[in-house]
Write a structure and sequence with these properties.
121 residues, mainly alpha, DNA polymerase, domain 1
Length: 121
């Protein structure tokens, strides 16, 4: 993307380049043009979420992950929170050997049930 170019315009440029049979594309990626603020941890949604995390005595890491699949919602001003209950598991998303232990998967279901109860009340 160039300067303050948005994703829709960028996508149109790529489609145009493909349509015009340009075979070489190049450039660099920078996210300096948009200064997106993270979702507030003081929101009722986040407070309910972290209440469930505390109740479950889980350790979490809070971080900004701009490449997440929901980043487009955050850019649109919609509060976003990602959570993956994958303890004791290597971080291998989309890798050729990505896996999740069955016990971790089943524990994750239990964790999500409690979180959903907390954030829905």
């Amino acid at each position: 993307m160039v300067g303050s170019q948005n994703m829709e315009s960028f996508t149109e440029d790529i489609v145009d380049a493909k349509t015009n049979e340009q075979t070489e594309l190049g450039g660099s990626v920078s996210n300096d043009s948009e200064q997106i603020q993270p979702s507030s941890l003081d929101s009722p949604f986040c407070k309910s979420f972290f209440s469930a995390i505390d109740e479950l005595e889980l350790e979490t890491q809070v971080m900004i992950f701009p490449a997440g699949t929901d980043a487009r919602y955050l850019r649109a001003g919609i509060p976003v929170l990602n959570f993956s209950p994958m303890n004791n598991t290597p971080v291998l998303p989309h890798d050729h050997d990505e896996y999740l232990n069955v016990d971790t998967f089943l524990r994750g279901i239990d964790i999500y049930q409690i979180i959903l109860q907390k954030i829905s009340t």
